[in-house]
Amino acid sequence: MPRPSQRLLSAGIITDAALRLVDRAGDFTMPGLAESLRVRPSSLYNHVAGRAEIIELMRSRVMSEIVVVEPRDLWSETVAALAREYRRCYAKHPRLIPLLTAYTVQTGVAFGMYNALAQAFSDGGFEPGEVLHAITALDSFVLGSALDQAAPTVVWADVPEANDAMRAALATSVPNPARADAAFEFGLRALVAGLVAQAPVER
Amino acid sequence: MPRPSQRLLSAGIITDAALRLVDRAGDFTMPGLAESLRVRPSSLYNHVAGRAEIIELMRSRVMSEIVVVEPRDLWSETVAALAREYRRCYAKHPRLIPLLTAYTVQTGVAFGMYNALAQAFSDGGFEPGEVLHAITALDSFVLGSALDQAAPTVVWADVPEANDAMRAALATSVPNPARADAAFEFGLRALVAGLVAQAPVER
Q1: Contact residues on chain A for B114, CB-CB shorter than 8 A
Q2: Residue A70: which CATH number?
Q3: pTM, 2 dp
Q4: For A127, which of A167, B1, B13, B152 is 20 to 30 Å away at the CA?
């Protein structure tokens, strides 16, 4: 039997361990990762080039779970369906989000979704520069919504500083996932409707 | 002269130090925070109740920088102006975002902006439940956009997997802050237009 310090490593095992650390503590270091796997830090480098590659492997892991839907009749329905899939996968790892947004998207698997979004917005008649903005705006909304899905049951405390409008709004809140789901669908409807209104091709 | 380990502490000094740790490493621990201030962990507890209070103090620090604009003629313009202020302040501390979204908003100072948003959406004729959804959706878009503002110059690498639509979009990209600013304004225009279209009161 190999001793724990000599266990077989792989890029997949390293990715799993890094994801566990990020889920728990928001980040990872190479020494901390080696410790969690009970190997020497130098052993990690037999399988990965370093931190940036591990982050890209985590992105690949999460984005490979996204089901890239077939194009719908309306480009806007394709966009909405992709956004739902995207949020579903990222909501499992909210603390990974700021690590991923801090690094260049390199992994080919991520482009399954981005390609589908780019095609949908192109079908909507947007110019390439607008396609990039539209993808980015949807990305921002989805990642923020994935963070919101991981929010505590009580998002806002009932404090004396709340005005009447805010207090009335808070009184309607329900526990997650229902609250976050409803807010996401409400916002997605508004964002997509706004994009459709700006698009040269509505259908 | 006091020795470093006996330096005067305050909640403000602790908040500053925690924010530096979060900016650098995405999180903080009480022992790590004490070490960065060269005090014993027990000394921290003379000033703060613990981790949750420090997180709330960081939220208060960031949100106190938001200039809560006076209501504009159109409620939608008020919403857009608040969103810009909100993003400006959070973009300075992108790694703080997932910590803040994981804790209940308790600090009164945060309600300056939330109250103004609640009032604006109420002026738009939204029901209280819709007001909550609209605030949450805007919040998600702004926080995601703040993360995007901290993204690297090259957000997406030019990989063989990119399709023609994605490659054409990427070819238009310019370095930040111009790219992120343009995408935010494009998305904000769409989101607000979509909200206006759903609102009972347009003006």
Answers
A1: 156, 162, 166
A2: 1.10.357.10
A3: 0.93
A4: B152
